[in-house]
# Entry
Amino acid sequence: MKMKLLLPCAFVGGLLFHVAPVEAATEPKDKTPWKITGQLEEACSCDAACPCWFNSKPTKMTCGGGQVLFIEKGNYGDVKLDGLALATMGQSPEGKTMMESYGNWNFAYYYIDEKANPQQRKALQAIAGAVLTPGVSKKTETRYAAITRKIEGKEHQITIGQYGTFHGHLVEGGMGGAPKIVNPPGADPLHHQYEQGRTTKMTYNDADQNWSWSNSNYMLGTFSVDNVQYEKFAAGLAQKMAGTEAEKAPKKK
# Structure
């Protein structure tokens, strides 16, 4: 089942430095308070670690991948979201960084946990529109699918219905433990800190794509985010972008 996703104008991450400041400053009309806590699973086609979070070009011509949020506890107003999940899959255009191409990605599809009831689906869709790369592409759709995770030892196996899957594991750091990346230039509240790994395999067959690769970038993180954090983040980002635009403007002699 699918439907068009109407995205609010809240913008996510350092990915947005090349988007018009007036858009970033626009506040979403929906003022419903929400909060979600859980784990982030993420994978893409880049070699580990993905350079896109550092405003560098992808290691292949494009960066194609996805983020999956497994919500342990959550609410959207009075609607409980415990045990549900949401995801996005997208792809940047060839030869460009994610930041400079934001708004012009090849596609961005959204996946809502099919076991959610109608109220929960609406809530998850609203949250996805606030935190999962909103406004990144003109080609967007939303689908309802079974979003599952199976953990066997160090291997995390993620499935998004019939559309895609990725298996990943953390790599070991030189001093033990998994490498951690903290506050990269492209970070938003979801990506303030994450652990680094590699995929065992990744496939995707939606949005006119047919991906199949392995040994690519994999990331694992925990999150506890809410609407207040993202409202503050968007406001701060708008200020930064306004300053950047002012610096670019020709100086009067």
